[in-house]
Amino acid sequence: MKLECKHVWEHISGYLDKQLDPELLAAVEKHLESCEVCSAVLDSTRNILILTADDRTYELPVGYSARLHARLEAVLKEESG
Amino acid sequence: MRAATATNESALISRVLAGETELFHELIRPYERLVYVTIFAILKNETEAEDAAQETMISAYRNLKSFRGEAKFSTWLVTIAMNEARKRLRKAKTAAENSLTEAVEEVEGDFTPAVLTDWREIPLEALERKELKEKLREAVAMLPEKYREVFVLRDVEELNQEETAAALGINITLVKVRLHRARMMLQKMLVPYLKSQTPARGGFFRRWFQ
Predict the structure, then answer these.
(1) Which chain A residues are within 8 Å of B60, Cβ to Cβ?
(2) Are A72 and B57 within 8 A, CB to CB?
(3) Chain A residue with Cα closest to B121
(4) ipTM
(5) How far is B44 from chain A (nearest CA, A)?
(6) Hey, is the C-beta of B130 within 8 angstroms of any chain A C-beta?
(7) What is B2-92's CATH number, 1.10.1610.10, 2.40.30.10, 1.10.1740.10, 2.115.10.20?
(8) Residue-wise pLDDT tens digits, B15-54
(9) From B8, B84, B94, B110, which residue has the greatest number of CB atoms within 10 Å?
(10) CA gap B129, B135 in Å, rounded
C-alpha cells in the first residue's frame, strides 16, 4: 500500500491514538520514514497533545470546592427532610 | 484499583439513595474538577462555569435514582455537565449569533494540517512554555463547539471514545472524525508557534505580536 501525503494526514489522529490496523500502520510508517513534511505534521500535532496534557493541571477558582459543598449542603438539608 | 473504586462508588450511591444523603459529598468529590473543566471549556467564563458546576451536582443529586450504573458514574456526571453548559450557551446567544455559529459549523471545511518541514521542540523554558499554552487555550476556545466538546473530553479530560460518545450522545465514528478535525484545526492555528525558529533569546513571541 503506497500512500500520498494527504492520505497520511487523514490518519494522523489514528496513528497518535494507536488505532490503525497493522497494514495501514505499516504503510503510514513507511511514508513517514521518507517524508519530512508528514513527519513534521505528525510531530507538531503530537506536541499539541503533549502541551494539552501538560496544561491539564490548570487551576480551579479559589474556594470552588468549598462553595460547591456549601451549596450542596443547603440543598441536601432542604430536601432530605 | 479501578474496580475497587467502582465498587466503593456503587456502594456509596446505594447508601445515598437509602437515606445517607451526607455521603453525596464524598461521592462527587473525585469529580469536582472534571465537571468544572468540562463546563469551563464550553462556557469560557469562570463565574458562569462555577454556577453551572454547582447546578450539575445538584441535578445529579436529585436524579441519582435514575443512574443505572450502565455508564460510569463519571460519564453520567459529564453528560449532565455538558447539558447544563449547552443550555446556558444557548440562552446566552442571541438569535443572530446562533445562526452565525451554525453557519460556520455547517461549512465542510478543509481539515488538512498546515504543512511545515521544520518544527520546534516544545520549549523547556517555563515562561515560553506558559505563553505557548496560553496560545493553545485560545486556539481551543476558537474551535467550533462540536469539535471543542470532543477535544476537551478526549484530549483534556482523557475520557475514552466510548465515554465521550456516551457523554455527547453521538456515535464513536463521529467522535473519531471530530477529534481528528479538532486536532488538525489546532495544528493549523498553532503552527506559527510550533515552527522552528532560531530567534534571539526571548524574541520568539515578540515577532508574532507585531
Answers:
(1) none
(2) yes
(3) A47
(4) 0.83
(5) 13
(6) no
(7) 1.10.1740.10
(8) 999 999 999 999 999 999 989 988 988 888 889 999 999 9
(9) B84
(10) 10
